[in-house]
Amino acid sequence: MYRARALVNYFGGQGQFAGWLLTKNAVPGISCASTRNYNVPVASEPFLNGSSSQYVEDMYNAWLADPASVHASWDSFFRNSAAGGVGYQSPPSLAPLGKNEVLATSFLPALAGATGGGHVSEKVIDDHLAVQAIIRSYQIRGHHIAKLDPLGINSADLDDRTPQELLYSHYSFDNPSRTYSEELKRQVEQFMKQDDDMDRTFKLPSTTFIGGKEKQLPLREILRRLELTYCRHIGVEFMFINSLEQCNWIRQRLETPGAMEIGADEKRLILARLTRATGFESFLARKWSSEKRFGLEGCEILIPAMKQVIDKSTELGVESIVMGMPHRGRLNVLANVCRKPLHQLFTQFAGLEAADDGSGDVKYHLGTYIERLNRVTNKNIRLAVVANPSHLEAVDPVVQGKTRAEQFYRGDGEGKKVMSILLHGDAAFCGQGIVFETMHLSDLPDYTTHGTIHIVVNNQIGFTTDPRHSRSSSYCTDVARVVNAPIFHVNSDDPESVMHVCNMAAEWRSTFHKDVVIDIVCYRRNGHNEIDEPMFTQPLMYRKIRNTKSALEKYAENLIKEGVVTPDEVKDVKSKYEKICEDALDSARKETHIKYKDWLDSPWSGFFEGKDPLKAGTTGVKEDTLVHIGKRFSSPPPNAAEFVIHKGIERILKSRMEMVEARTCDWALGEAMAFGSLLKEGIHVRLSGQDVERGTFSHRHHVLHHQTVDKATYRPLCNLYPDQAPYTVCNSSLSEFGVLGFELGYSMTNPNALVIWEAQFGDFNNTAQCIIDQFISSGQAKWVRQSGLVMLLPHGLEGMGPEHSSARLERFLQMSSDDPDYFPPESDEFAVRQLHDINWIVANCTTPGNLFHILRRQIALPFRKPLILMTPKSLLRHPEARSSFDEMLENTEFQRIIPDSSVASQSPQNVKKVIFCSGKVYYDLKKAREDRKLENDIAITRVEQISPFPYDLIKSECAKYPNAQLSWAQEEHKNQGPWFYVQPRFETALTGSRDVVTEKESRGWFAKLFSNKEPKPPPKPETETLAETRVVSYVGRPTAASPATGSKAQHLKELSHLLDDAMAL
Ligand SMILES: Cc1ncc(C[n+]2csc(CCOP(=O)(O)OP(=O)(O)O)c2C)c(N)n1
Ligand SMILES: [Mg+2]
Q1: Calpha distance 104→116 (Å, rounded)
Q2: Which residue's CA is the closest to the ligand 1 atom numbered 10?
Q3: Nearest CA among 968, 1038, 980, 977 for reference residue 805
Q4: pLDDT value at position 184?
Q5: Is the CA virtual torsion 351, 353, 355, 360 positive or negative?
């Protein structure tokens, strides 16, 4: 066995026991594996196993570097060993062995005789440490040398810097590639020929299952089995997981002899699925050769893989699967995994017009929802693929939110019934930060989906970029290590290995409810899309690809060789599928229109039916309800005697109670009234974001904390009524992109819920810009999918500097889809119609009463629209920003504008100026007017709903003051805030529509360009002469690059100028 040590030294250089495996960066392609500390609980492992042997090894290394750095006993042990003496001698003991004590040699029966007596010789320890280290090294590092690349030219971990190897791979493409694994095998074989120790039998430690029922094996066989398990077509990373149970679970499923064996039926099923996946792409390629479809060629195994994950998961109890995926292979997934009717897919290629609303999206972004019987498990299953934008990985948190919501509504607290699958490209998975942000939601109490199965289509290229230029990590999957997810790298050309890891992944999720990654190492047969030329940038790789048979061909050949199928059967399966495709194409040709609704990922069955789309419910409530909610919200926990609350909270509750008694609400109470009344009506409310439980500005306090008992909390809004809907309020991780996406997904599942995301400060919403632009603003237009998500964005210039002032209101307004030149026909339904037609609502309320109504209106509407709500900071405590209960009672509603109600409004003829404004600047203007005693001269009207623009009310408000000049006052800089949005709309409100193509007509705008139809004449302004003379002037800060000054003094100076300008007559 000293030879084994020699082997260690030969491979590892420094004499590290675990260093004998090869890595690929040293001369000539050999170096030792670096040691790592793993967080496995040592006490739970037997001596000499797993981390104990690692410990001895670490000690040895430390001793080598500096003998004084280890304890004197270890120093003596290693010194004796090095001198050729006995390393360890047990001290003489007079006492009999204790109950749990055993002699060290009893662990080593095969060698006990050789050592004699009660102590272990250096040789015994060395031999066993070496075997243990070898096994452990394979488990930790085996994946580095596994044959993962079906092309045989790259290394999945990018660790192939040895010049000879590079030269080899550059100039020997036509030869079967020699992998490190083969190099290792060659050396081991050479060694084995010379070494008698290879025939010696070693007891296997409990951290390996390679023996099956055998407790000991010859070293030769140990090495062979380890090679087969860890260095063939599966490379598994799992030894960083800090749970011995989980590590053993994986070892057992991989190492047990015969674990990978499958029967002939299963093989035929894989072949049939692979045939469909391959046939689908070749059918499309034949029929539409110049169309972009982002085909799956080179990774067709993805389809059988996904089906395997779904089969296994359904078998384990899952009933609904929510999936998110990028462009690559999407059509194939819809066709062959979801079984979306093929003719619907084919109509997408026909360039037909849509029969329903919306502007639509390209075919490889669309979602779908299917309920069907899984023929393998004979169970019903629901499959949803969430529509996504081009923005890679942005859909990840959306899928998670949707999954979480489905679990929530089904009462599936452990994720046993609903799960998510996320697909990724290799470049996007490691490149996009949202992947990390989504991973970090995976184990949070209010965000977990109890394990996601991630599948990476690792075609070893991103568009034209080689992985070496697109990532700094070894594998593209390294991001998953942060959440202790096991990572299975697998060669796509070995379908049975792929199926094996799929089964393991599904079982892993079902057992541990944690994330897991399947990294399918494959290639991309075509360019980035079908019309791209890959030889421009990857000539050698693509020469190799051209000469590579498809996975289907290879697998079919293997099965024919094995006698599982005949060549005729292979042909038969193929031609049957082709016939299915041809038939579907025939029926697709009969279609005249496409329907976006066929591609909806979240149908709300029953929600729209029987509803008048222009009739909203009321938002006011009974006084009793307000009093009840108010009192509950202001009361300490029912077990107040035991539940110690903070003195400050006591004061807050007391002042809340006083407000309730005085029939008034401040901001927090108004919000609680909205939530509470919806909960009473059976509407689930969920408020999520950073520090939302207390509220960034310490005004909300929806979770009261026991001051002396850790984690004991009380949530008043969860305790309003015995039969109320559930209320969730949850502090989130510090991620806007991830959490906003998550809440958007959550809002997609059920329209009867108020889902709210609050930004810490509105400024931070731009780190979630992609969710705002790609999903919230345009989701309905692209995918006919509605969402009533509310974004609460603290906004306002209060001298806090550039970064705590602006939620960038202007950006939301710029993306509002209402036409600045179009004044919709005035009618009773004006307000609801406007809401129906626009993409989202943007508002800035100034009273708790209006906040109450606008939140409730989200649910009262017969459809769903996102609400972007600027929320205040100083107004949270402003004595005037209060509302009486009267403003929330049954006969009241949301006020789109709050007209002036001062003395000015009583003699409108005499008013010299009307100032329109929005948000908290109203209170500054009002005070300035009081200070200057201009109440008779100046009226101040608040525009609470900025978009869609309240044309009708603005028009009548302007008409009410015929002699007044009109101003728009805002605290934001001129190039920011609402000014640019309101200015043209004021003009339209005053003069009527100009020549516009209305939104309804715009679906046919393209056709219109070619038609002779006359445009509609603009409606005549009612107050023509007045309109001609009236314009709205701007009052506010000048343009600026930054949203606000960093200087408090400058801020006050600017405000005072603004108020002076506004009050000037
Ligand atoms: C956020 C984002 N940035 C850039 C792009 C443009 N783009 C489209 S596909 C692609 C390459 C993706 O590579 P990979 O993730 O490996 O997927 P593959 O196309 O290889 O399947 C890029 C850069 C995009 N779609 N999304
Ligand atoms: Mg790729």
Answers
A1: 12
A2: 463
A3: 977
A4: 52
A5: positive
Write out the H or E segment, with its range, that includes residue 489: strand 487-491
Nearest CA to ligand 1 atom 1: 391
List the one residue out of 437, 753, 423, 775 whose CA is nearest residue 601: 775
| Rounded-to-integer distance, Cα 333 and Cα 313, Å | 17
Report the chain's mean pLDDT, rounded to a whole number. Answer: 85
Closest ligand 1 atom to 463 CA: 11
Q: What is the pLDDT of residues 234-253, one digit of tens each?
A: 999 999 999 999 999 999 99
Q: Which atom of ligand 1 is least distant from the CA of 329?
A: 21
Q: State how far the Cα of 323 lies from the Cα of 332, in Å rounded to an integer.
A: 14
Indicate which residue's Cα is closest to atom 15 of ligand 1.
Answer: 425
Torsion 704-708-711-712 (CA) sign? negative
- Describe the chain by its helix, strand, coil percentages, rounded to 5: 45, 10, 40
CA distances from 1038 to 779, 971, 973 (A): 34, 10, 5
Specify the pLDDT at position 494: 97
Q: Which long-range contacts (CB under 8 A, 24 or more apart) does 735-738 make?
A: 735/437, 735/440, 735/441, 736/764, 736/765, 736/767, 736/768, 737/394, 737/397, 737/433, 737/434, 737/437, 737/767, 737/768, 737/770, 737/771, 738/397, 738/434, 738/437, 738/438, 738/440, 738/441
pTM equals 0.86
pLDDT in tens, 509-560: 999 999 999 999 999 999 998 888 998 999 999 999 999 999 999 999 999 9
Give residue 331 CA to ligand 2 midpoint distance, Å: 17
Question: 313 CA distance to ligand 1 centroid (A)?
Answer: 29
List pocket residues of ligand 1, CB cut-off 6 Å. Answer: 328, 390-392, 425-428, 432, 457, 459, 461-463, 524, 528
Query: How close is the Cα of 205 to the center of ligand 2, in Å?
Result: 40
Tell me which of 463, 465, 769 to substitute to probe ligand 1's pocket, judged by most ligand atoms within 8 Å of the beta carbon.
463
For the segment 276-331, what is each residue's pLDDT rounded down to a tens digit? Answer: 999 999 999 999 888 888 999 999 999 999 999 999 999 999 999 999 999 999 99
Angle at 171 between CA 170 and CA 174, to 5 degrees: 105
Alpha-carbon distances, residue 770 vs 209, 389, 773 (angstroms): 47, 9, 5
311-317-320 Cα angle (round to 5): 75
Gap from CA of 676 to ligand 2 centroid (Å): 48
pLDDT at 29: 27
Task: Point out which residues pair with 202 in neighbouring strands.
Answer: 217
Q: Which residues pair with 462 in a beta bridge?
A: 465
Residue type at position 4: A
N-terminal to C-terminal alpha carbon distance within the chain: 101
Q: Which atom of ligand 1 is nearest to the CA of 432?
A: 1
- State the pLDDT at residue 131: 81
Higher pLDDT, 50 or 256: 256
Ligand 1 atom closest to residue 394's alpha carbon, by position in its atom list: 1
Q: What angle do CA 482, 486, 489 make, to 5 degrees?
A: 115
Percent pLDDT > 90 in the chain is 69
The amino acid at 130: A
**Helical segments of 647-768, H only:** 647-661, 667-680, 736-749
d(CA 285, CA 826): 53
